[in-house]
Amino acid sequence: MLEILYQDEFLVAVNKPAGMLVHRSWLDPHETQFVMQTLRDQIGQHVFPIHRLDRPTSGVLLFALSSEIANSGITATVQADVWIRPWLSVFGTRCTR
Fold this sequence. Notes:
Elements lengths: L2 E5 L3 E6 L18 H9 L4 E2 L9 E6 L2 H13 L4 H7 L7
Antiparallel strand pairs: 1-2, 2-4, 3-4
């Protein structure tokens, strides 16, 4: 079970454990557990990744609850690091860069 840090009608933020792939990948075709499928089963609805974290990395991972939200520009904004700093402040974490 994943730790859900935040959830509303548009987004879910989870604490991704180190060692877990975000989704199926050719990097490890034998892997059977993925954050995306685990979260889908946990909350009972499809999820759409906003960004990814490398397998050995733990941390906050954002998912949209609809393809419309995922394709609305939020993905590019997060990947461009424009949205990350305000998001971190929601969790009370100070960005030090």
